[in-house]
Amino acid sequence: MSDLNVRTWDELEKYQPTVMKMLKQIIIKNRIAHAYLFEGMKGTVKKEIGLLLAKALFCEQPFEGYKPCENCPQCKRINHGNHPDIHLVEPDGNSIKKEQIYFLQQEFSKKAVESNRKFYMIIHADKMTTNAANSLLKFLEEPGQNTTAILVTEQIQKILPTIFSRCQHITFYPLPKPELIKALINHGVKKDRAPLLANLTNSLDEALQMNEDQWFLQARDLVLKLYEIKTKQTIMDTLLFLQTDWLPLFKSREQIDVGLDMLLFIYKDLLYIQLEKVKEVVYPDYYAEWQKNALKVSGNRLTEQISLILDAKRRLQSNVNGLLLMEQLMIKL
Known about the structure:
Number of strands: 5
Structural class: alpha/beta
Number of helices: 16
Distance between the termini: 50 Å
Strand order of the largest sheet: 2-3-4-1-5
Mean pLDDT: 89
Shape: elongated
Largest sheet: 5 strands, parallel
Radius of gyration: 24 Å
């Protein structure tokens, strides 16, 4: 384990208020289960909260009986990723292998080094091989005293029922967009760019990475330019733009999908402008400019256009030509 991205209790409480309230009660009442299954979509700070729970359990001087102090040797070692009684298991390549679980079992057969507790967290627990999952099952069936396990997954349907039934489930919900937008702005992201990032991902870290990515910045500009050409020029101009400007930047299926999302948000903005939902707008810097466009089209037509883009996103997942897909979409729009 290397140095970790440390988040405080108060910070994480903004992202997952229900989860944090539940964990607070568990810690205060000393009702720690031997195994938890943290499930929820990417970017819902499951790993960070798992490490915070570890700190709360190991901390020598917790505030109010549950908040890690962040200053004692236990908290500092966890923050630096080198606590001997805490183990993180992550996929080795595409999967978590039996050998990794065996090594974990070997470590847990030893006496705790710095406390009377042992803690382990398995990231992407759904990626365990069948042999690894079966090995873990034995581990879960006979937990050691003061041993806490956390299994983290984005795909709960892939967890073996036998493992599922031996864990307490805690569901993590997508981060509230207003909180994510505020956090992005606090990290130096421009106010007019933060809503788009918050709509493309639920992860603060991923959003910050995207903000520094030249591809993302170019993609945003190209999508806005595509909409402008489609609105003000002929269909032939639009198709030519797809050939000369769009195609060189949006090469992979994943990139086209992001481009379609960016385009989708434009049409949603037009609908939000009609409904006077200013706070929902994803491109706030274009609000005034798009007000005229929003008045020229009916709400029903906008809903139809949004459906066309969503249909293009679905078709993209099958083996279709990306450029042809975009050309057909522009004609329909």
